[in-house]
Amino acid sequence: MKVLAIDPSLRSTGFAVLEETGKGITPVAYGEIKNARALAVSGCLVAIHDEIVRLIHVHNPECCAVEAVIYVQSFRTAITLGAARGAAILAAAGRGLPVYEYAPRRVKQAVVGRGAAVKTQVSFMVRALLGLHENPPPDAADALAVGLAHCQARQAASSGAEPLKPV
């Protein structure tokens, strides 16, 4: 099974494609969708959408996992983050992929073992769990962690735990 995992953000959306086989989980591709500060919000949303569509076309994943909205103190930040998530979810759902959502604390718990882990801990554990030669960029590491959390949830669901429900 191939999963496209996304850590949405307006200026640096992390993405990862993971393939789960009987032998384990392999990273197929990962990186960040970077948008320049000078690019308008609408342009950033189009860029996120278009790159996610391209990734789906190239890698043909079976589902998409997205990090849920984090708690932020600024309503503007929340709205902007929600718009970036919307662009990514629309790209995946528009291509027929079921989309699953994971809270940041659940993602960190799945990868690090505690929900209050910092970015450097997530990056280190992603590197260790996937056998990478170097730490991935921060937002790509977060996307890889989202993908790992989804694979873990899928395995739990197949062994009788709560079934997965797309958003």
Kindly describe this structure.
This protein is α/β, with parallel strands linked by helices. It has a single domain, classed as Nucleotidyltransferase, domain 5 (2-Layer Sandwich), CATH 3.30.420.10. It has helices spanning about 40-60, 75-95, 105-110, 120-130, 140-160; strands at about 1-5, 10-20, 25-35, 65, 100. A 5-stranded mixed beta sheet has the order 3-2-1-4-5, with helices on both faces. Strand 1 and strand 2 form a beta hairpin. Helix 1 (about 40-60) runs parallel beside helix 2, helix 3 packs across helix 5 and helix 4 packs across helix 5. The longest helix has 21 residues, at about 140-160. The two termini are about 20 Å apart. About 40% of the residues are buried. The mean pLDDT is about 95.
CATH topology: Nucleotidyltransferase, domain 5
Structural classification: alpha/beta
The CATH H-level homologous superfamily: Ribonuclease H-like superfamily/Ribonuclease H
CATH class: Alpha Beta
Q: Number of helical segments?
A: 5
Portion in strands? 15-25%
Biggest beta sheet summary? 5 strands, mixed
Query: How many beta-strand elements?
Result: 5
